[in-house]
Design goal:
This protein is mainly α. Helix content is about 50%, strand content about 0%.
Length: about 150
């Protein structure tokens, strides 16, 4: 049986080079600055955002595979949401969405795709399953979307 090559991760993908590192850094820093300015510990004590979140955001991108139609910008948006929005409460989550989408749109040409969330989660889940770091629902065991077959 011929072996299939491993899927490309963002750090190895040619598609990832379509966004310049300078533009990516600028967009991420602008989102971070806006989050720190808008959501402060005065409102909620856990709204303490530091450079650690930027590192977590960038490091988290390494977990995504661009197989199955996932784009770099979708992964950046999803990971930013995971790092920042998941800590916010109430209407602040929608405020964050506006900050993230607005910044990524203006600086990187991001166009929000409401159906992308499921594709992003499934691609990430398949990547984590392939390296043995996740236990997921049975329906995701065959991750053909991301090019993985997990048993």
């Amino acid at each position: 049986m011929p072996s299939t090559p491993p899927p490309q991760v963002l750090s190895q993908s040619k598609t990832a080079s379509s966004v310049s590192p300078a533009a990516l850094s600028k967009a991420m820093l602008e989102v971070f600055s806006a989050v720190r300015d808008k959501f402060t510990p005065n409102e909620h004590p856990h709204y303490e955002f530091s450079a650690r979140e930027l590192t977590e955001w960038m490091s988290g991108l390494q977990r995504y595979s661009l197989e199955g139609g996932l784009t770099l910008l979708q992964a950046i948006a999803h990971e930013g949401t995971r790092v920042f929005r998941d800590r916010l409460v109430g209407d602040h989550q929608e405020d964050f969405n506006r900050i993230l989408v607005g910044t990524l749109s203006s600086l990187l040409g991001y166009k929000q795709d409401v159906s992308a969330g499921k594709r992003v989660r499934k691609a990430l889940a398949c990547k984590l399953l392939s390296i043995g770091t996740a236990v997921l629902p049975r329906k995701w065991r065959a991750c053909s979307l991301a090019g993985y077959q997990v048993h």
